[in-house]
Amino acid sequence: MTTGWVFDCKRFSIHDGRGLRSTLFLKGCPLRCPWCHNPEGMVHGQRLSHSVARCIGCGTCLRACPESAVSAPDSENNIQIEETRCTRCGRCIDACPTGAMAFDARELTSEQAITELLRDQTFFEVSSGGVTLSGGEPLLQPEFAVEVLDGCRRSGAGTAIETCLAAPLQHVQAMARVTDEVFVDIKLSDESQHREVLGWPLEPIIRNLQYLISVRANVVVRIPLIPGFTATESNLEGIGRIVGRLEPQPPVELLNFNPFAEAKYRRLGRTWVFPEGSQRYSPQELAAFRQVLRSTGVERVLDEQEEPG
Fold first, then answer.
1. Is the pLDDT score of 77 beyond 70?
2. Are strands 101-103 and 252-255 parallel, antiparallel or unpaired?
3. Can you tell me the distance from the alpha carbon of 185 to that of 163, in angstroms, rounded to the nearest whole number?
4. For the residues 29-57, what does the mean pLDDT come to?
5. So what's the pLDDT on residue 265?
6. Exposed, middle or buried: residue 188 (CB in 10 Å: 0-12, 13-18, 19+)?
7. Alpha carbon distance 236, 286 (integer Å)
8. Number of Cβ atoms within 10 Å of the Cβ of 11
9. Mean per-residue pLDDT for 68-97?
10. Considering the domain 3-43+106-302 in this protein, what is its CATH number?
């Protein structure tokens, strides 16, 4: 039995696969997307975190830390954490009166994760739902992910994973054997831009996608629409050509930009790279993006709320 680091579990989800689902978010991702909608899940393992929004600048955490790993060089609500000195004793968390100090993950055994995910199995059965692993990148914790998916599947729950496929092929192969739906994020179609912006090569991701198609995995390719990055005609044409060369072709789903992620960055004291007031794309803009994909030979572009089927 393995253990894994998770940072959230969302029940009654309707956007992470068929039917009603429980989604477990695994910690850590090899990509460094500047728009990441779960920035709290990017770094693997457990870290001490500080919420700027909850902090009242009382300085209690500074006084509670026996290692002087917590400091406030500018003001008492501009907390900095020195990871190399933090022993994760939790004293600053216990002392904080507002919950501004917290660990950003918890460690679960695969059995504990399965038990938590299957709490709503009755709802899975009546809605053809199940469990989904998301992140972060679940394949960064491959043994844990496969054990959880396998255990849930053996209990009768449908299984799904949301992945960028930035992982060794053997991990993808093991995952495919225990997963009913695979949602694959393809963000950028240009190899050099993929390396520069995301910090990872595109080629091995495409090879993993080709493998999944070759074994007839139930794949949906997802494209997050990010202003100034992915939501361009040339990028969508490039991804369309990648999908068009697959046989059989998987359906493609466009994920609208989510400006509400800005609140997470503000809470974590991180920089949000988009202008204030950035909006989701309109139905007319989404329709135009879908048409770009169709013009490259993509056979099926899902509309919002459409089941992959």
1. no
2. unpaired
3. 6
4. 91
5. 85
6. buried
7. 12
8. 13
9. 87
10. 3.20.20.70
State the Cα–Cα distance between residues 292 and 297, nearest whole angstrom: 9
- Give the rounded percent of residues in the chain with a pLDDT score beyond 90: 83
Can you name the CATH fold of 48-103?
A: Alpha-Beta Plaits (3.30.70)
pLDDT(80) > 60: yes
What is the model's pLDDT at position 83?
A: 86
- Give the pLDDT of residue 309: 57
Whole-angstrom distance, CA of residue 309 vs CA of residue 296? 22
Does the structure show a pLDDT above 90 at 229? yes
Tokens representing 196 are 């520069």
Q: Which pTM does this prediction carry? A: 0.92
Domain borders along the chain are: 3-43+106-302, 48-103
How far is 122 from 170, CA to CA, in rounded Å? Answer: 33
- Kindly state the tokens that stand for 6: 């998770």
Give the CA angle between residues 71, 73, 74 to the nearest 5°: 130
| Structure tokens belonging to residue 277 | 């007031």
Backbone angles phi, psi at 71, to 5 degrees: -140, 165
Written in H, E and C, the secondary structure of 100-134 is CEEECCEEEEHHHHHHHHHHHHHHHHHHCCEEEEE
